[in-house]
Every structure is written in structure tokens, then in C-alpha cells.
Amino acid sequence: MKRWLSKAETTLGNHSDRLNAINIFPVADGDTGTNLYLTVRAAARVLQSLDTSALPQISADSTVHSFGPPDPALNDVGAVLAQAGEAAMEQARGNSGTLFAVFLCAAAEPLAGHHRLTASLLAAALNRAQIRAWSALSDPVPGTMLSVMEACARAAAAVDSAHDGDDSNHTLGLALDATVNAAVAAVVRTEDQLEALHAAHVVDAGGVGMLLILDCLRSAVLGEELQDQLLDGLHGYDVQDPHIHAAMPRDEGVEVMCTITLSPLDAAMMRQRLDEMGDSVIMSQVGGAPDASGAYRWRVHVHVPDAGPAVTLIRSLGEPSDISVSELATPRNPDGHGS
């Protein structure tokens, strides 16, 4: 998990400019690459602080080489990934970053209590993650990174089913191969699933970002190089291609994000009211357990014409933290905060 997210941080950093260049949906603000990078960076850096030097090391032949007494919490794939997911959720940026944080938190759940990844666990994690990501959005749209997540989950499940739940490293490799191949096909399809992408002759930026992240997972688990050829032929992704988003009409309005503790009833009310005010509403729990009053922490994201009513609504229901307001027409600054 540490190698995966560290590799994903580096890869998204290298690709953020091209992802930004083709970012025209849901708004042409040219920041999908930056938002994904900053969100993955938050997840990767919280894991870099963990001391896993004493954990049992598992070689390719499944032989365990123990170098000291393992910390049960650190030796739990799900627990480690949950920490990364929570950090990502707390610092998520934009639509794409928030959806990836949701993906990461949900993927950790079926992995809880397990010390190694298998094809069956991969399939379960991807399925839980794609369902949670689709449900986090009030108005989910096919042809985005959601479609890539769904295709990958189906591919991993097909491999797991075909091999009757075999938990060997070989079958895990087959499942990872199928996952990445499905991601490529799903990214290619995005161009014809969304009218805006079809008109601009580009694939979805968030979908490409998800493809890169999944190829990093394959690389980290199998110990193989990233497959740069996966990006060949993706419309709009050549380095010589222009920044397509720059030629699109400017989007008015702002993006409002925060973290807030709400009861389930207040959370449902907030979602309904935000749906009435704007679009791109994403709400997902941060962490799994409620507080003593039965309330949960939520990450909230919305695009609205004016921040005032949305911020007033949010503050009327609780005390938000990390609240940010960013102009949709203005790309994020390098530190990830709106200008």
C-alpha cells in the first residue's frame, strides 16, 4: 500500500499537466490533475510516517521472512489503507480528488483484518469502492472516473470467479492485469459517453487519472514497471496537444468544500438543500464510527453560483472545518487552495 500510493503520487505529479489540459467536465477549470495529485499526496504521506520496518516481509513465493514482532495495526492491509483514505478525505481537492478519497476509504473496508492482497479481496475492494463512489454523488454521470471504477470492479470479479476464489499470487496478477486493461477500455469509451468530451474529441481526465492510479497498484504489487503504452492513442493526451480546457467557455460560480459532523438526518437535509442550490454534490463519511451522539463526520463538496447561501446552510447545521471556496473559472494554485 505504501509503494502503491507513493508511486501514484509521483506518477500523478508527472502527469498532472496533461490531465489538467483535457479537464473539461463537469467544468472546464483545468485542475483535475492537480486535484488528484494533491489528494493522493495526502494519502501517501500519512503512510510514509508509519514504521513498517518490523513487519513480516512476504516474497514472491509467499515465503514469510519475519524481521521482528509485527504491530497488528500496521500489519493489517485494510487498517493501513483506511488511514490513507481518511487523510485523503480530509484533504481532498475537487470532484476527482473527493471521489478518489471515497474510493480509497471504501476499498479499505473488505481488506480489514487481512495481511496480504488476493484476487478475491481485490475484487471485493474494487466493488465496494465503485458502489460507494457512485452513491456519494447526488447526480452520478457515466463517462467519468466512475465508469472506470465500475469496469475495473467487474473485470476483477470475473477473474476471481473464473479461478474459483484461488488466493495465489498468480491469480492476483491476472486480476490486476484485467483491472488495468478494463480501465483502458473504459477510458476510451468515455469520449462517446459524454457529449462535451465527444465534441472536444478527448477522453475524460478523471478517468485517465484513475487508470494511472490502478496501473501504479499493479506495478507496486507485481514489482513490474508502469505500462506507459497504455496512454498511447488516448485522444487529447499527447504532449503536443493543446490545453483544451483553455479554449472552453469560462464557468461561473464557485466550489465549496468542507468537513463537518452531522447526524444522518441533517446530512440528508444538507444534501437535498445543496442539490437545490447547485450541482456536483458529493457527500461521504470520513471514518466509519459515529460519535457519542450518533453523528458522523462528512466531507462535503458542491458547485454553486454563489458561496454565501451554501456556507450559511452548512454553518446552520454544524461547525465546518477546512472550509474552502474556490472560483471555478480559476485554476488552483500549486498549494491546492483556490485563489
Fold topology:
Elements: H1 2-21, H2 32-48, E1 57-58, E2 64-65, H3 77-90, H4 94-111, H5 119-136, H6 145-162, H7 169-193, H8 195-200, H9 205-222, E3 254-262, H10 264-277, E4 279-285, E5 296-304, H11 307-317, E6 321-327
Antiparallel strand pairs: 1-2, 3-5, 3-6, 4-5
Keywords:
339 residues; globular; alpha+beta; disordered C terminus; two-stranded antiparallel ribbon; 53% helix; four-stranded antiparallel beta sheet
Q: Biggest β-sheet: count, sense, barrel?
A: 4 strands, antiparallel
Strand content: 5-15%
Helix-strand makeup class: alpha+beta
C-alpha Rg (nearest Å): 20 Å
Order of helices and strands: HHEEHHHHHHHEHEEHE
Distance between the termini: 33 Å
Mean pLDDT: 85
Can you count the beta strands? 6
Unreliable parts: 53-70, 330-339
Give the CA-based shape.
Answer: globular
Order of strands across the biggest sheet? 4-5-3-6
Specify the number of helices.
11
The helical percent reads 40-55%
In words, what does this structure look like?
The structure is a single chain. By secondary structure, this protein is an alpha+beta fold. It contains 11 helices and 6 strands. The strands form 2 sheets. A 4-stranded antiparallel β-sheet has the order 4-5-3-6, with helices on both faces. The protein has a two-stranded antiparallel ribbon with strand order 1-2. Helix 3 runs antiparallel to helix 4 and helix 6 runs antiparallel to helix 7.
